[in-house]
Structure formats: C-alpha cells, structure tokens
C-alpha cells in the first residue's frame, strides 16, 4: 500500500470514530410503533387475537413467547428478519404486510446475537427492543 492510501484510510477511520453513535431506542418507542402497525393482527398485548386477524380468520402468533419457543433466548436476528421480510417466505398463510416505508430511517448499531454490531433501521430496532421487553 502506498502512503497516500494509508493516510486516506487513517483519515477515514478517525472521521468515523468522531461521528456520534445513534442511541438504541427504548421499549416505549417500539411500543408506539407496535400499537400503530402490529396490534391490529397481534393484539394490543402481542398475544395474538387482533381485530384484523380475527376478521380475516387468521391466528397471529403470540409474540410474548418468542424467547420461550427459542429455549429461553430471544433470537434478535430472526425477529429482525421476520419483521423486515427476509424470512417471511417460510410462513404459512397470508404474509405480513410490507413495512418498507416504516423501515426507511437512520440506522442504529444492534448486536443481533453474534457479537457484531450491525446497522439496523431505527424503527426496526425499536420494534425488536419492544418485543424483547414483553417476553414472558
């Protein structure tokens, strides 16, 4: 590597280190998003039985038991993938609606369970944090 490349790399690293890190959302931020976007199917408490799901004859899963169904560990990466649509193709029945506009936002660093911080759109991270907070 040339010195010029090394200097450019070092300058970029310093710039990134000086940028403020976005704070992780708190459960209340996710609770508001859940009430607005998810409760119609998953119910206000996340246990299923929302008005739209009932009307359509669907059984939305109980979201308070995600960790219990996963051996007591909340699977952050799986939850994020389900909400954003990466793993929805495996779901039986009608798919969840697309939330693309909701997920267009600044990103926050999230440890998805592998110890590596990944950039995640803030609303998506907020929903994950809220769901993690309601586990029984």
Main β-sheet description: 2 strands, antiparallel
Shape: globular
> What is the H/E order?
HHHHHHEEH
**Unreliable runs:** 5-19
Provide a count of the helices: 7
Which structural category do the helix and sheet elements fall into?
mainly alpha
Task: Report the C-alpha radius of gyration, rounded.
Answer: 18 Å
Q: How far apart, in Å, are the first and last alpha carbons?
A: 54 Å
Q: Could you report the average pLDDT, rounded to the nearest whole number?
A: 82
CATH class placement: Mainly Alpha
Strand order of the largest sheet: 1-2
Can you tell me the CATH topology?
Cytochrome Bc1 Complex, Chain D, domain 2
Folded structure, characterized:
This protein is mostly helical and 136 residues long. It has one domain (24-133): Cytochrome Bc1 Complex, Chain D, domain 2, CATH 1.10.760. It is built from seven helices and two strands. The longest helix has 16 residues, at 3-18. The protein has helices at 3-18, 27-37, 39-42, 51-56, 66-69, 76-84, 122-133; strands at 107-111, 117-121. The chain has a two-stranded antiparallel ribbon with strand order 1-2. Mean pLDDT is 82; it is low at 5-19. α2 crosses α7 (122-133) and α6 (76-84) crosses α7 (122-133).
């Amino acid at each position: 590597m040339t010195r010029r490349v090394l200097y450019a790399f070092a300058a970029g690293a310093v710039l990134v280190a000086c940028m403020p890190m976005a704070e992780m959302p708190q459960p209340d931020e996710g609770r508001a998003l859940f009430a607005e976007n998810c409760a119609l199917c998953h119910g206000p408490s996340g246990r299923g039985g929302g008005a739209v799901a009932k009307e359509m004859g669907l059984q939305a899963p109980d979201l308070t038991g995600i960790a219990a169904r996963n051996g007591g560990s909340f699977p952050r990466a799986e939850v994020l993938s389900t909400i954003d649509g990466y793993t929805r193709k495996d779901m039986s029945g009608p798919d969840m609606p697309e939330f693309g506009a909701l997920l267009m936002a600044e990103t926050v660093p999230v440890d998805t369970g592998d110890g590596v911080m990944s950039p995640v759109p803030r609303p998506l991270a907020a929903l994950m944090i809220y769901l993690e907070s309601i586990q029984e």
